[in-house]
Design goal:
The chain is of the alpha+beta class. It has two domains: about 5-50 and about 270-405, no CATH class; about 80-260, no CATH class. Helices cover about 55% and strands about 20% of the residues. Strands 1, 2, 3, 4, 5, 6, 7, 10, 11 and 12 form a ten-stranded mixed β-sheet that branches. A hairpin with a 2-residue loop joins strand 6 and strand 7 (about 180-185). The longest helix is centred in the last third of the chain and has 44 residues, at about 265-310. It is elongated, with a radius of gyration of 33 Å. It starts with a helix and ends with a helix.
Length: about 400
């Protein structure tokens, strides 16, 4: 039998039973849409996490106080990092480009009658390089500001807007813990990183922060919350981490457990990427169950169709149709159901991914690989689950089929 003729006959048969054909395709439609949407959302989550990590800076190492074991305990971390540690890293580690010690606190900032809760960051000028920050107006804190303990502050864009509205903040004064600070600059918008809105930060000289706002609380020197280090290039990350760890062990006279932890930006990216990748795989597997269920639905309906069309099958075999002709006929019908269902499901899945990308921070995109896999799997399911009913139809004895019809 001609394949084109078989396709025409299959289409005519399916169109004659529109409701049954539609309900049969429903499982494939839902399965395809789910697989494509889940993979697209998962890939969007991976891109989002990658962007969040990259927004922390390029080729960055983070040095935090306490060993990994100490950080896992629900207590305040030990105050083991000081400004002198950061200065030693900048001077003695050749692979380092910039070092930004940070002393963080959350305080109420006041301008006239406006009070805004802000994240205060005591740091040095190198934070511009380490965290990829830019100044929109005015200037940033300088080394001279650090040496003189100047009472100056550079505001994040959103913080400046909440405090000053449409006024120019540069040159104005704000108060914090009874300390008056002159606004010297406003930063370019940076956005949020892992829930931390950097546009609500206020940057002050580290010395001013330690001496006038938080006070000195470490017996070893001027305490810092953590140290961010920008390495010259990606190839030097491992060497820089090794050199920093050895330098801090010497400075802290460590013979047993480290009282600090160096975190690699690339390691953080790999950990978060593996987590989001596993979640994407799990979501796709759950969605794939819908495709399997849809395939079973196709098999059930095709078996019902064989029973209903026993007379037709017997008549066609009686006038010369071979078992192969009958087999091809029913397989084509199953493939058409799965292919059409797959196409509709693909369209719905793409639409869902685009909606998620439009109304959420996830940079969800449609993966060509996901579409190819979903459509290929749905077509394969149609073929796989359509073969058994087709073989049942092909093996019918024409005499028995005509007698039982």
């Amino acid at each position: 039998m001609d394949i084109i003729e078989s396709v025409k006959m299959a289409g005519t048969t399916l169109l004659a039973n529109k409701m049954r054909s539609t309900l049969t395709m429903l499982g494939i439609i839902i399965g395809n849409a789910s697989v494509i949407a889940m993979i697209g959302i998962g890939e969007g989550a991976q891109k989002f996490v990658g962007d969040q990590v990259n927004s922390l800076g390029t080729n960055v190492l983070f040095i935090v106080p306490g060993s990994p074991e100490a950080q896992s305990r629900p207590v305040y971390p030990p105050q083991t990092l000081v400004l002198e540690d950061a200065e030693a890293i900048a001077e003695q580690v050749p692979t380092v480009q910039a070092v930004a010690p940070m002393l963080n606190a959350s305080e109420l900032m006041t301008f006239r009658s406006r009070n805004v809760s802000a994240s205060i960051v005591g740091t040095n000028p190198d934070i511009l390089t380490v965290r990829n920050l830019d100044v929109a107006r005015g200037r940033f804190i300088s080394e001279l500001d650090l040496r003189r303990n100047e009472q100056v502050v550079a505001l994040g864009s959103e913080l400046a807007e909440q405090l000053f509205g449409n006024q120019n903040p540069v040159g104005q004064s704000v108060r914090m813990k009874n300390v008056s600070l002159q606004v010297i600059g406003v930063m370019q918008p940076k956005g949020s990183t892992f829930g931390d809105n950097m546009d609500m930060n206020a940057y002050v000289p580290l010395t001013t922060m330690a001496n006038r706002i938080t006070g000195r609380t470490s017996p070893y020197g001027m305490q810092v919350t953590f140290i961010s280090v920008s390495v010259r290039d990606e190839q030097s990350m491992g060497a820089a981490q090794f050199q920093i760890e050895n330098l801090l062990r010497l400075r802290h006279k460590i013979t047993d457990e480290d009282d600090f932890t160096v975190r690699n930006q690339k390691d953080l990216m790999n950990i978060l990427g593996s987590i989001t990748g596993a979640l994407t795989l799990m979501l796709a597997a759950v969605a794939g169950i819908s495709l399997f269920v849809g395939g079973i639905g196709i098999m059930n309906i095709m078996l019902v169709s064989v029973t209903e069309r026993t007379k037709e099958i017997g008549l066609r075999k009686a006038i010369g149709a071979s078992e192969q002709d009958i087999l091809i006929q029913f397989v084509i019908e199953a493939i058409i159901l799965s292919a059409v269902g797959g196409a509709i499901g693909t369209g719905l899945g793409i639409g869902g991914v685009l909606l998620v990308g439009a109304f959420s921070p996830l940079n969800a995109g449609v993966s060509a690989g996901a579409i190819a896999v979903a459509v290929g799997v749905s077509g394969g399911i149609g073929l796989f689950f359509g073969v058994f009913p087709a073989r049942q139809a092909a093996k019918l004895d024409p005499i028995v089929a005509l007698r039982s019809a």
